[in-house]
Description:
The protein has about 200 residues and is an all-alpha fold. About 75% of the residues lie in helices and about 0% in strands.
Amino acid sequence: xxxxxxxxxxxxxxxxxxxxxxxxxxxxxxxxxxxxxxxxxxxxxxxxxxxxxxxxxxxxxxxxxxxxxxxxxxxxxxxxxxxxxxxxxxxxxxxxxxxxxxxxxxxxxxxxxxxxxxxxxxxxxxxxxxxxxxxxxxxxxxxxxxxxxxxxxxxxxxxxxxxxxxxxxxxxxxxxxxxxxxxxxxxxxxxxxxxxx
Length: 197
């Protein structure tokens, strides 16, 4: 739980995604693929570049707000773990806790996390930034080399990116806990991790 809390706190802080080279959210792939074409067209660049930049800001703010609310969802998933599972994790070596958590909880976590992500994106009013961009792209799709309208599920996109980032942070914290006795926290953790060496 220490790794989960650390990941949730770090990514959920202001700038947890936006200021991170590792986790900063880019535009959804459908938009990122045509961003260069938008920038190459003076009219579209003038109309859409500021909106695209604001969209990136709001995507990252939404991911940060969602991550800040993720700990109870992860905690609920971990509480149901059996002693056998816990011992298997401890004896499984580097990354075993993260692998277990991801294998056992990723799909239910994303389902539980979706309304949290939706609420976070609503809080930052993402739709008011996304809808004009999508409309302008769709109106100019032939000019941009597209044949179909963009219909991106931004909640699913942010949900996946935020979940991936949280699991990565959990893995990094797990490694730190296993390698550094001071990071293990309680006497119980020290004893349990000590037997796993």
